Amino acid sequence: MHGWCERKPPEWSTYLSKLVKVTAHSNQQYEGWVFTVDPVSASMVLVTLPEGDRAHVRVVLGHAVESVEVLQEENKGNTLRLASLFLAHGAEALSP
Amino acid sequence: SPRFIALCPTSIPSSAGEGACIEEEQRSRSELRERFLRTLIKMSNKPVNFDMYEGVQVRAKFGASDIDVLNFQVSELQTPIGVQKEALLRCHDMISFSFDV
Question: pLDDT tens track of chain B, all 101 residues?
Fold first, then answer.
């Protein structure tokens, strides 16, 4: 996608916790729930949640992102699960 | 350093506009960045698969990233021609990387 790296944080935020399909360099495609988009490198963190406690995390570098398609809107269960994967037990949120 | 000046803009580009707009942008930026840093913390000392350009795939134990996500320090880098004990990977050579949590 032309200009993915030049987007602003509020635009990246609209993808948070949604299921997306990302097409990257040489037509490689990745699917996953968006945990975040790094505002420095525009890299997307995608999480797939198979059954059980395991999760698979894929980070697509911002410079390789060609297009992003939303497949499914966020749902509360997955949003909480994503947050709990990365927040250590007892860790406090740093944001005000 | 000269490298930092060459590779990183000294100010973060942001929308010019009303205070409220900038405030919202900064709030989004800090939330997104915090989540990304937590991802990197989660990845440290884990085996990670890197998909590089030209179809090259390598596996290594992730150590650290620099602040601007330009280089990763990794250990036990498994390449097609052998294992490199310590290495720096340039992020511009990567398409994606993945790991299990």
Answer: 777 777 766 556 566 656 678 888 999 999 999 999 999 999 999 999 999 999 899 999 999 999 989 999 999 999 888 999 999 999 999 999 999 98
Count of CB contacts below 8 A, A vs B? 105
Q: Is residue A4 part of a domain?
A: no
* Closest CB to B32 among A38, A60, A87: A38
Domain count of the fold of chain A: 1
Q: Which residues of A touch B (CB under 8 A)?
A: 8-10, 12-13, 16, 24-26, 28, 30, 35-41, 43, 45, 54-61, 63-64, 85-87, 93-95
Q: What is the ipTM of this complex?
A: 0.89
Measured between alpha carbons, how far is A12 from A45 in angstroms, rounded to an integer?
A: 12
In a domain, A28, yes or no: yes
